[in-house]
């Protein structure tokens, strides 16, 4: 199941708001508990910068209704995220991405890249491609991407 949530954040005292759309994809049949799928995806959204420090995330009941899951599942995910320092709860106000987001965001980005690097190396091994060739390919692709951005 794929859901979108819109998040509105006020800018200082102005009445302007920024709408942020994020997606969470839940797959009940992939063997990963649903609460962990929520945790992993919120971590990714924070680590990738899609969710910024101070940004509010949906209330437990709202997200549970959107995902068609038990509110206890979402509550467990939010508790895990809070313990990890990804989000903070503000009594009576909601749950927000932690203000101390930059070190966590960097750590999360590196974790995401590590997982992708592991997958790339496993695929290279299955295709009988040596790690040196993979590194060379990455450098070539980096050079091409860098030139195309200029």
Radius of gyration, taken over Cα atoms and rounded to an integer in Å = 19 Å
| Structural class by sheet pairing and helices | alpha+beta
Helix tally equals 5
Regions with little confidence, pLDDT below 50 for 5+ residues: 7-19
Quaternary state of this entry equals single chain
Shape: elongated
Largest sheet: 3 strands, antiparallel
Spatial separation of the terminal alpha carbons: 38 Å
Beta-strand proportion: 15-25%
Question: N-to-C SSE series?
Answer: EEHEHHEEHH
Can you characterise this structure?
The chain is an alpha+beta fold. 53% of the residues lie in helices and 19% in strands. The protein contains five helices and five strands; from the N terminus they run E-E-H-E-H-H-E-E-H-H. The strands form two sheets. It has a three-stranded antiparallel β-sheet. The termini are far apart.
Strand and helix layout:
Layout: E1 2-10, E2 17-25, H1 34-47, E3 56-57, H2 60-67, H3 71-83, E4 87-90, E5 94-97, H4 101-126, H5 131-148
Antiparallel strand pairs: 1-2, 3-5, 4-5
Helix pairs in contact: 1-3, 1-4, 2-3
Please supply descriptive tags for the structure shown above:
150 residues, alpha+beta, three-stranded antiparallel β-sheet, 5 helices, 5 strands
Task: Describe this structure in a few short sentences.
The protein is α+β, with helices and mostly antiparallel strands and 150 residues long. It is 53% helix and 19% strand.
């Amino acid at each position: 199941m794929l859901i979108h949530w819109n998040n509105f954040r006020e800018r200082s005292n102005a009445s302007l708001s920024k709408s942020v759309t994020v997606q969470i994809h839940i797959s009940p049949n992939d063997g990963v508990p649903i609460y962990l799928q929520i945790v992993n995806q919120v971590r990714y959204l924070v680590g990738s910068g899609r969710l910024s420090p101070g940004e509010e995330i949906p209330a437990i009941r709202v997200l549970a209704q959107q995902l068609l899951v038990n509110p206890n599942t979402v509550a467990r995910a939010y508790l895990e995220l809070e313990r990890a320092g990804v989000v903070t709860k503000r009594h009576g106000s909601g749950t927000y991405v932690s203000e101390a987001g930059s070190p966590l965001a960097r750590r999360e980005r590196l974790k995401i890249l590590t997982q992708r690097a592991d997958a790339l190396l496993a695929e290279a091994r299955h295709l009988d491609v040596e790690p040196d060739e993979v590194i060379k390919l990455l450098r070539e692709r980096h050079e091409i991407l860098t030139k195309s951005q200029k």
